[in-house]
């Protein structure tokens, strides 16, 4: 019984190594695999075993073919033809780039790729920081926040933000901007933040009235470069940063909503009585304005006490 099992195993090993050979159908013998037919206490003498005696019951006559092949050979694999190679090597037709048409992920840029591949778009935010840009790329119409920091921008055109009705924040910090078109922000009725620190601007265009935060630190702004009463109607303005410029006086009137006013390191030499207070109403108190910086100016704040009697906190400055 044991010899029959070993012979069957050797036949299966032989057939598995010979592709195209199909084993003869054999009726399974369930008795062979019954546990009572196994002698578990007997050690097999493998060295003295004659494997030639196990092939008597198997018929290999059908292998004696003239061509040495089994009758049922597998199908030949289809070989690639010359036509297949020619089709594989065909050069695709060149693609023409439309720099102004709509792209898959946003408008096309001048580099021939969608803005949201050149930059990074996350939701309504477009990040184009430190990309070496010398102009603002066309932005998707649903842009709410644009970051173009640390590039080589020199001028901002009135078409750069045209028709971006959802734009809420613009950050162009750390460029080389020296000028902007006067009406560059006219259509941005939802704009709340304008960050233009560390540029070369001397003149400021007209600003949207809905701004809450304006950062113009470290530019070259001069007082005559600001619109007269340019901040008066900004009833939502809370943070105004104008330090590190060339301003000769504080741009008044300031909106009552203002909380922070930084004017250090300018050329301010005097304060008007109505700079912060209402000279016609001595009971007026400006409650929101809690942080005023005037240090770094050729100004002795002790000489202008009437200018800040309505403030809850004294400004920081030279005494």
Describe this structure in words.
The protein has 319 residues and is low in regular secondary structure. The chain contains 3 helices and 11 strands. The protein has helices at 2-16, 82-88, 115-118, and strands at 120-122, 125-127, 145-147, 155-156, 169-171, 179-180, 193-195, 213-215, 239-241, 260-262, 291-293. The strands form 2 sheets. Strands 1-2-3-5-7-8-9-10-11 form a 9-stranded mixed β-sheet. A hairpin with a 2-residue loop joins strand 1 (120-122) and strand 2. The longest helix is centred in the N-terminal third of the chain and has 15 residues, at 2-16. The chain starts with a helix and ends in a 26-residue tail after the last strand. The model is unreliable at 1-7, 9-18, 73-78 and 84-105 (pLDDT under 50).
Task: Give the topology.
Elements: H1 2-16, H2 82-88, H3 115-118, E1 120-122, E2 125-127, E3 145-147, E4 155-156, E5 169-171, E6 179-180, E7 193-195, E8 213-215, E9 239-241, E10 260-262, E11 291-293
Parallel strand pairs: 2-3, 3-5, 4-6, 5-7, 7-8, 8-9, 9-10, 10-11
Antiparallel strand pairs: 1-2
Family: Belongs to the small leucine-rich proteoglycan (SLRP) family. SLRP class III subfamily.
Subcellular location: Secreted
Domain LRRNT: 115-145
pLDDT < 50 stretches:
1-7, 9-18, 73-78, 84-105
Total beta-strand segments:
11
Average predicted local confidence, pLDDT: 78
Number of helices: 3
- First and last CA, distance: 114 Å
- What is the 3D shape? elongated
Sheet having the most strands = 9 strands, mixed
* DSSP helix fraction: under 10%
Question: Going across the major beta sheet, what is the strand order?
Answer: 1-2-3-5-7-8-9-10-11
Rg over alpha carbons: 43 Å
Secondary-structure element sequence? HHHEEEEEEEEEEE
- What structural class should be given to the helix and strand makeup? little secondary structure
Strand content: 5-15%
């Amino acid at each position: 019984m044991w010899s029959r099992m070993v012979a069957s195993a050797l036949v299966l090993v032989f057939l598995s190594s010979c592709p195209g050979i199909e084993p003869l159908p054999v009726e399974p013998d369930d008795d062979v695999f019954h546990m009572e037919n196994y002698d578990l206490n007997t050690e097999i003498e493998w060295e003295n075993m004659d494997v030639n005696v196990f092939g008597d019951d198997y018929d290999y006559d059908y292998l004696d073919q003239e061509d040495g092949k089994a009758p049922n050979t597998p199908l030949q694999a289809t070989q690639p033809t010359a036509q297949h190679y020619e089709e594989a090597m065909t050069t695709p037709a060149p693609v023409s780039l439309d720099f102004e048409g709509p792209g898959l992920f946003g408008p096309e840029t001048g580099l021939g790729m969608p803005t949201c591949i050149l930059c990074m778009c996350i939701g309504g935010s477009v990040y184009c920081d430190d990309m070496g840009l010398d102009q603002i790329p066309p932005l998707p119409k649903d842009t709410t926040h644009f970051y173009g920091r640390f590039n080589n921008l020199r001028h901002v055109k009135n078409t750069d933000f045209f028709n971006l009705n959802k734009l809420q924040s613009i950050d162009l910090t750390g460029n080389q901007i020296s000028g902007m078109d006067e009406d560059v922000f006219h259509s941005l009725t939802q704009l709340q933040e304008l960050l233009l620190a560390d540029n070369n601007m001397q003149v400021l265009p007209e600003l949207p009235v809905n701004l809450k935060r304006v950062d113009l630190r470290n530019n070259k702004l001069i007082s005559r470069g600001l619109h007269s009463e340019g901040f008066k109607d900004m009833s939502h303005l809370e943070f105004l940063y104008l330090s590190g410029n060339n301003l000769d006086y504080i741009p008044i009137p300031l909106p009552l909503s203002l909380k922070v006013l930084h004017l250090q390191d300018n050329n301010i030499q005097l304060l008007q009585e109505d700079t912060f207070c209402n000279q016609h109403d001595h009971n007026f108190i400006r409650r929101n304005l809690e942080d005023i910086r005037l240090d770094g100016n050729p100004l002795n704040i002790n000489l202008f006490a009437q200018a800040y009697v309505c403030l809850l906190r004294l400004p920081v400055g030279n005494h």
